[in-house]
Amino acid sequence: MKIFYSPRYEVDLGPHILPTVKFRLIKERLIELGTARAGDFEEPSPARDDDILLVHTPAYLDTLRRGTLTAEELAVLDLPFSRGLAEAAWVGVEGTIRAARYALETGLGIHIGGGGHHAYPDHGAGYCVFNDSAIAIRTLQREGRIVKAMVIDCDVHQGDGTAFIFREEPSVFTCSVHQEDLYPELKQRSDLDIGLPSGAGDEEYLAELSRQLLPAFEIFRPQLLIYVAGADPYQDDQEGGLKLTFEGLER
Question: What pLDDT is recorded for position 206?
Answer without folding.
Answer: 96
